[in-house]
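INFO  loader      accepted 1 record
INFO  loader      residues=317
INFO  predictor   begin
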Amino acid sequence: MENKDKYKILFVCLGNICRSPSAEAVMKKLVHQARLDAVFEVDSAGIIGYHEGEGADPRMKAHAARRGYKLDSISRPVRMADFYDFDLIIGMDNRNVEDLKEKAPDLEAVDKILTRLQTDHLDSLLLHRPDALMEPEEIAEAFDILYKAGKVRNFGVSNMTPMMMELLKKEVKYPICANQIQLSCAVTQVFDAGFHMNMQCNAGIMRDGGGVLEYCRMNKIPIQAWSSLQYGYFQGVFLGSEKYPELNAVLERIAKEKGVTSMAIALAWILRYPGATQAVVGTTKPARIHEAAKAGEIQMTKKEWYEIYLAAGNDLP
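INFO  predictor   done
INFO  writer      dumping C-alpha coordinates
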Protein backbone atom coordinates (compact mmCIF):
# COMPACT_ATOMS: atom_id res chain seq x y z
CA MET A 1 0.00 0.00 0.00
CA GLU A 2 1.34 3.43 -0.97
CA ASN A 3 1.94 6.08 1.69
CA LYS A 4 -0.89 8.28 0.40
CA ASP A 5 -3.38 5.48 1.14
CA LYS A 6 -2.36 5.11 4.77
CA TYR A 7 -4.69 6.11 7.58
CA LYS A 8 -2.89 9.07 9.14
CA ILE A 9 -3.08 9.88 12.86
CA LEU A 10 -1.71 13.03 14.51
CA PHE A 11 -1.32 13.44 18.28
CA VAL A 12 -1.20 17.04 19.55
CA CYS A 13 -0.21 18.57 22.90
CA LEU A 14 0.96 22.06 23.80
CA GLY A 15 4.67 22.00 22.94
CA ASN A 16 5.17 18.58 21.33
CA ILE A 17 7.99 17.52 23.68
CA CYS A 18 6.20 15.34 26.25
CA ARG A 19 2.69 13.97 25.85
CA SER A 20 2.18 13.89 22.10
CA PRO A 21 5.64 12.37 21.35
CA SER A 22 4.86 9.69 23.95
CA ALA A 23 1.49 8.96 22.38
CA GLU A 24 3.15 8.80 18.97
CA ALA A 25 5.77 6.32 20.20
CA VAL A 26 3.20 4.09 21.92
CA MET A 27 0.92 4.08 18.87
CA LYS A 28 3.81 3.34 16.50
CA LYS A 29 4.84 0.37 18.61
CA LEU A 30 1.29 -0.99 18.72
CA VAL A 31 0.99 -0.58 14.94
CA HIS A 32 4.32 -2.35 14.39
CA GLN A 33 3.42 -5.22 16.71
CA ALA A 34 0.17 -5.70 14.82
CA ARG A 35 2.11 -5.65 11.53
CA LEU A 36 0.07 -2.72 10.29
CA ASP A 37 2.92 -0.39 9.34
CA ALA A 38 1.63 -0.34 5.76
CA VAL A 39 -1.81 0.73 6.96
CA PHE A 40 -1.14 3.47 9.52
CA GLU A 41 1.08 6.55 9.62
CA VAL A 42 1.56 8.23 13.00
CA ASP A 43 2.95 11.67 13.82
CA SER A 44 2.77 14.31 16.55
CA ALA A 45 2.80 18.13 16.76
CA GLY A 46 2.32 21.00 19.17
CA ILE A 47 -0.16 23.84 19.45
CA ILE A 48 2.74 26.29 19.74
CA GLY A 49 6.10 26.34 17.99
CA TYR A 50 8.20 27.33 21.00
CA HIS A 51 10.15 24.05 20.95
CA GLU A 52 10.26 23.65 17.17
CA GLY A 53 13.29 21.64 16.08
CA GLU A 54 13.92 20.17 19.53
CA GLY A 55 13.71 16.52 20.54
CA ALA A 56 11.43 15.20 23.27
CA ASP A 57 12.07 16.21 26.88
CA PRO A 58 15.02 14.13 28.24
CA ARG A 59 13.03 13.09 31.32
CA MET A 60 10.17 11.86 29.19
CA LYS A 61 12.59 10.02 26.92
CA ALA A 62 14.17 8.29 29.94
CA HIS A 63 10.80 7.14 31.32
CA ALA A 64 9.74 5.95 27.88
CA ALA A 65 12.99 4.03 27.34
CA ARG A 66 12.51 2.14 30.63
CA ARG A 67 9.16 0.99 29.29
CA GLY A 68 10.45 -0.02 25.89
CA TYR A 69 9.45 3.03 23.86
CA LYS A 70 11.72 5.20 21.73
CA LEU A 71 10.88 8.91 21.53
CA ASP A 72 12.72 10.09 18.42
CA SER A 73 10.30 12.70 17.10
CA ILE A 74 11.30 16.32 16.53
CA SER A 75 8.97 19.02 17.81
CA ARG A 76 6.96 21.03 15.29
CA PRO A 77 3.80 23.14 15.46
CA VAL A 78 0.49 22.13 13.95
CA ARG A 79 0.23 23.30 10.35
CA MET A 80 -2.88 24.31 8.48
CA ALA A 81 -2.23 21.52 6.01
CA ASP A 82 -2.42 18.94 8.83
CA PHE A 83 -6.19 19.36 8.94
CA TYR A 84 -6.34 18.09 5.37
CA ASP A 85 -3.48 15.59 5.44
CA PHE A 86 -4.48 13.62 8.54
CA ASP A 87 -7.53 11.40 8.92
CA LEU A 88 -7.58 11.67 12.71
CA ILE A 89 -6.18 14.43 14.94
CA ILE A 90 -6.18 13.76 18.69
CA GLY A 91 -5.70 16.53 21.25
CA MET A 92 -4.07 15.30 24.46
CA ASP A 93 -6.43 17.29 26.71
CA ASN A 94 -9.56 19.43 26.43
CA ARG A 95 -7.58 22.64 26.07
CA ASN A 96 -5.60 21.17 23.19
CA VAL A 97 -8.85 20.15 21.52
CA GLU A 98 -10.25 23.68 21.86
CA ASP A 99 -7.04 25.16 20.45
CA LEU A 100 -7.22 22.77 17.51
CA LYS A 101 -10.80 23.83 16.81
CA GLU A 102 -9.66 27.46 16.70
CA LYS A 103 -6.84 26.63 14.27
CA ALA A 104 -8.91 24.39 12.00
CA PRO A 105 -9.75 25.92 8.59
CA ASP A 106 -13.40 26.05 7.63
CA LEU A 107 -13.94 25.90 3.87
CA GLU A 108 -17.68 25.51 4.42
CA ALA A 109 -17.72 28.95 6.01
CA VAL A 110 -15.75 30.28 3.02
CA ASP A 111 -18.32 28.78 0.63
CA LYS A 112 -21.16 30.45 2.56
CA ILE A 113 -19.44 33.83 2.24
CA LEU A 114 -18.88 33.34 -1.49
CA THR A 115 -22.51 32.29 -1.92
CA ARG A 116 -23.67 35.50 -0.25
CA LEU A 117 -21.42 37.42 -2.65
CA GLN A 118 -22.96 35.44 -5.54
CA THR A 119 -19.61 34.15 -6.78
CA ASP A 120 -17.50 31.01 -6.51
CA HIS A 121 -14.16 32.76 -5.96
CA LEU A 122 -12.45 36.04 -5.05
CA ASP A 123 -10.03 37.64 -7.47
CA SER A 124 -8.15 39.20 -4.55
CA LEU A 125 -8.11 38.54 -0.81
CA LEU A 126 -6.52 41.30 1.25
CA LEU A 127 -5.21 40.74 4.76
CA HIS A 128 -6.83 43.72 6.44
CA ARG A 129 -4.64 45.78 8.78
CA PRO A 130 -1.60 44.52 10.71
CA ASP A 131 -1.87 41.98 13.51
CA ALA A 132 0.91 42.03 16.11
CA LEU A 133 0.29 38.32 16.77
CA MET A 134 0.16 37.19 13.13
CA GLU A 135 2.08 34.05 12.22
CA PRO A 136 3.34 34.32 8.62
CA GLU A 137 3.53 30.53 8.34
CA GLU A 138 -0.16 30.17 9.21
CA ILE A 139 -1.14 32.95 6.81
CA ALA A 140 0.87 31.29 4.04
CA GLU A 141 -0.75 27.91 4.68
CA ALA A 142 -4.25 29.39 4.84
CA PHE A 143 -3.87 31.22 1.56
CA ASP A 144 -2.28 28.20 -0.09
CA ILE A 145 -5.32 26.11 0.87
CA LEU A 146 -7.73 28.76 -0.44
CA TYR A 147 -5.72 29.16 -3.65
CA LYS A 148 -5.51 25.43 -4.36
CA ALA A 149 -9.22 25.05 -3.62
CA GLY A 150 -9.94 27.71 -6.25
CA LYS A 151 -11.54 30.06 -3.72
CA VAL A 152 -9.02 32.91 -4.05
CA ARG A 153 -6.72 33.89 -6.92
CA ASN A 154 -4.53 36.67 -5.51
CA PHE A 155 -3.19 37.66 -2.10
CA GLY A 156 -2.81 41.25 -0.88
CA VAL A 157 -2.60 43.38 2.25
CA SER A 158 -3.89 46.67 3.57
CA ASN A 159 -2.27 49.36 5.72
CA MET A 160 0.99 47.46 6.08
CA THR A 161 4.49 48.86 6.44
CA PRO A 162 7.43 47.72 4.30
CA MET A 163 8.82 45.50 7.07
CA MET A 164 5.43 43.87 7.67
CA MET A 165 5.27 42.96 3.98
CA GLU A 166 8.84 41.65 4.13
CA LEU A 167 7.86 39.42 7.05
CA LEU A 168 4.94 37.98 5.09
CA LYS A 169 7.01 37.51 1.93
CA LYS A 170 9.36 35.18 3.82
CA GLU A 171 6.57 32.59 4.01
CA VAL A 172 3.88 33.49 1.46
CA LYS A 173 5.01 32.16 -1.91
CA TYR A 174 2.50 34.18 -3.91
CA PRO A 175 3.25 37.81 -4.90
CA ILE A 176 1.48 40.55 -2.96
CA CYS A 177 -1.06 41.89 -5.43
CA ALA A 178 -1.77 45.17 -3.61
CA ASN A 179 -1.26 47.22 -0.47
CA GLN A 180 -4.42 49.18 0.31
CA ILE A 181 -3.73 52.44 2.17
CA GLN A 182 -5.71 55.59 2.92
CA LEU A 183 -4.88 58.19 0.30
CA SER A 184 -6.72 61.12 -1.26
CA CYS A 185 -6.16 64.76 -2.18
CA ALA A 186 -7.06 65.58 1.43
CA VAL A 187 -5.20 62.69 3.12
CA THR A 188 -1.59 62.98 2.03
CA GLN A 189 0.57 61.85 4.97
CA VAL A 190 2.46 59.28 2.86
CA PHE A 191 3.66 62.15 0.66
CA ASP A 192 4.09 64.69 3.46
CA ALA A 193 6.74 62.70 5.31
CA GLY A 194 8.91 62.41 2.21
CA PHE A 195 8.64 66.12 1.37
CA HIS A 196 9.51 67.09 4.95
CA MET A 197 12.23 64.54 5.57
CA ASN A 198 14.70 65.63 8.26
CA MET A 199 12.52 68.58 9.29
CA GLN A 200 11.22 69.24 12.79
CA CYS A 201 7.53 69.48 11.95
CA ASN A 202 4.42 67.35 12.17
CA ALA A 203 4.37 66.75 8.42
CA GLY A 204 7.77 65.06 8.66
CA ILE A 205 6.54 62.28 10.94
CA MET A 206 6.71 58.88 9.26
CA ARG A 207 3.32 57.19 9.71
CA ASP A 208 3.79 54.44 7.14
CA GLY A 209 6.74 52.61 8.65
CA GLY A 210 9.12 54.43 6.35
CA GLY A 211 8.81 54.71 2.58
CA VAL A 212 5.79 52.50 1.85
CA LEU A 213 5.24 54.17 -1.54
CA GLU A 214 8.83 53.63 -2.63
CA TYR A 215 8.86 50.07 -1.29
CA CYS A 216 5.75 49.17 -3.27
CA ARG A 217 7.18 50.72 -6.44
CA MET A 218 10.44 48.80 -6.03
CA ASN A 219 8.59 45.52 -5.49
CA LYS A 220 5.90 46.15 -8.14
CA ILE A 221 3.11 46.09 -5.55
CA PRO A 222 0.16 48.24 -6.65
CA ILE A 223 -1.03 50.87 -4.18
CA GLN A 224 -4.81 50.82 -3.72
CA ALA A 225 -6.15 54.08 -2.29
CA TRP A 226 -9.13 53.63 0.03
CA SER A 227 -11.35 56.58 1.04
CA SER A 228 -10.10 58.17 -2.16
CA LEU A 229 -12.64 61.01 -1.93
CA GLN A 230 -12.69 61.40 1.84
CA TYR A 231 -10.95 63.70 4.30
CA GLY A 232 -9.87 62.68 7.80
CA TYR A 233 -10.77 59.25 9.09
CA PHE A 234 -14.23 58.79 7.53
CA GLN A 235 -15.10 62.40 8.36
CA GLY A 236 -16.73 63.07 5.03
CA VAL A 237 -16.26 63.72 1.31
CA PHE A 238 -14.09 66.74 0.49
CA LEU A 239 -15.73 67.33 -2.90
CA GLY A 240 -18.03 70.31 -2.43
CA SER A 241 -17.14 70.58 1.26
CA GLU A 242 -16.93 74.08 2.74
CA LYS A 243 -13.88 72.87 4.68
CA TYR A 244 -11.85 72.70 1.44
CA PRO A 245 -12.81 75.78 -0.63
CA GLU A 246 -9.39 76.24 -2.23
CA LEU A 247 -9.03 72.56 -3.09
CA ASN A 248 -12.49 72.43 -4.65
CA ALA A 249 -11.84 75.61 -6.65
CA VAL A 250 -8.69 74.10 -8.15
CA LEU A 251 -10.37 70.73 -8.86
CA GLU A 252 -13.32 72.43 -10.53
CA ARG A 253 -11.10 74.65 -12.67
CA ILE A 254 -8.95 71.75 -13.91
CA ALA A 255 -12.08 69.63 -14.42
CA LYS A 256 -13.62 72.33 -16.62
CA GLU A 257 -10.43 72.63 -18.63
CA LYS A 258 -10.37 68.87 -19.29
CA GLY A 259 -14.12 68.40 -19.75
CA VAL A 260 -14.65 66.04 -16.83
CA THR A 261 -15.96 66.20 -13.26
CA SER A 262 -14.12 67.19 -10.11
CA MET A 263 -14.36 63.58 -8.94
CA ALA A 264 -12.47 62.38 -12.01
CA ILE A 265 -9.73 64.96 -11.36
CA ALA A 266 -9.46 63.95 -7.68
CA LEU A 267 -9.05 60.31 -8.69
CA ALA A 268 -6.64 61.18 -11.50
CA TRP A 269 -4.48 62.92 -8.87
CA ILE A 270 -4.09 59.53 -7.13
CA LEU A 271 -3.43 57.69 -10.38
CA ARG A 272 -0.76 60.22 -11.36
CA TYR A 273 1.67 58.73 -8.85
CA PRO A 274 4.16 56.59 -10.82
CA GLY A 275 3.62 52.86 -10.53
CA ALA A 276 0.52 50.71 -10.60
CA THR A 277 -1.66 52.99 -8.45
CA GLN A 278 -5.38 52.25 -8.13
CA ALA A 279 -8.29 54.09 -6.51
CA VAL A 280 -11.13 52.41 -4.62
CA VAL A 281 -14.26 54.44 -5.39
CA GLY A 282 -16.72 52.68 -3.08
CA THR A 283 -19.83 52.88 -5.25
CA THR A 284 -22.00 50.37 -7.09
CA LYS A 285 -23.90 52.96 -9.12
CA PRO A 286 -23.11 52.54 -12.86
CA ALA A 287 -23.18 56.31 -13.53
CA ARG A 288 -20.66 57.01 -10.76
CA ILE A 289 -18.41 54.16 -11.92
CA HIS A 290 -18.53 55.53 -15.48
CA GLU A 291 -17.66 59.01 -14.16
CA ALA A 292 -14.78 57.64 -12.06
CA ALA A 293 -13.40 55.60 -14.98
CA LYS A 294 -12.65 58.80 -16.88
CA ALA A 295 -9.84 59.44 -14.38
CA GLY A 296 -7.79 56.81 -16.19
CA GLU A 297 -7.90 58.86 -19.41
CA ILE A 298 -6.68 62.12 -17.89
CA GLN A 299 -3.14 63.30 -18.52
CA MET A 300 -2.28 65.31 -15.40
CA THR A 301 0.83 67.44 -15.42
CA LYS A 302 3.25 67.72 -12.53
CA LYS A 303 2.28 71.38 -12.16
CA GLU A 304 -1.40 70.43 -11.78
CA TRP A 305 -0.56 67.64 -9.32
CA TYR A 306 1.41 69.94 -7.04
CA GLU A 307 -1.20 72.70 -7.34
CA ILE A 308 -3.83 70.27 -6.03
CA TYR A 309 -1.49 69.12 -3.25
CA LEU A 310 -0.92 72.71 -2.07
CA ALA A 311 -4.60 73.63 -2.42
CA ALA A 312 -5.45 70.92 0.13
CA GLY A 313 -3.65 72.96 2.79
CA ASN A 314 -0.23 71.37 2.46
CA ASP A 315 3.10 73.13 2.04
CA LEU A 316 6.43 72.35 0.44
CA PRO A 317 9.88 73.14 1.91
